[in-house]
Design goal:
This protein is α+β, with helices and mostly antiparallel strands and about 130 residues long. The protein has helices at about 15-35, 60-75, 95-105, and strands at about 1-5, 35-45, 45-55, 85-90.
Length: about 130
């Protein structure tokens, strides 16, 4: 499943490295409380993309609610997110992961995906190896 959520009014909150790091670390804290398989992510300045799979019986809405409210609290911003998030089932997971990882390149933030430290492409963060189908 590919999930995208935007900051309120597309404010570039995660251009601040401290807030981008907190966005990544919060994702891992939420994963402990609401388990899911995390295959890839990128924290762009004004939005995030997650490639994940929820275990059967789990609700992505609960996980995203915990993530968005937790990060809002951690950063200390009264209104951080747009109300909704977009989710879609991915037919070709490697293509979705490539899309996520190339987001910072497309935005002109880096020249190579692995140079962007707020992404699973950087190799700095633990993710689950990608299966061929989600």
């Amino acid at each position: 499943m590919l999930i995208t959520t935007n900051t309120l009014k597309r404010v570039r909150v995660f251009a601040d490295p401290t807030k981008a790091r907190e966005a990544v670390e919060c994702l891992y804290r939420v994963q402990v409380l609401h388990p899911f398989f995390l295959y890839g992510f990128v924290m762009m300045p004004d939005h995030i993309h997650l490639l994940l799979q929820m275990p059967e019986g789990s609700a992505v809405s609960q996980m995203m609610s915990a993530y968005k409210s937790g990060l809002t609290f951690d950063i200390g911003t009264p209104k951080l997110w747009q109300r909704r998030f977009h989710q879609r089932i991915v037919e070709y997971p490697p293509g979705a992961l490539e899309y996520i990882h190339f987001n910072p390149v497309k935005a002109g933030l880096v020249e190579e995906p692995h140079h962007y430290q707020w992404s699973s492409a950087s190799g700095l963060w633990d993710v689950t190896p990608l299966p061929m189908s989600l």
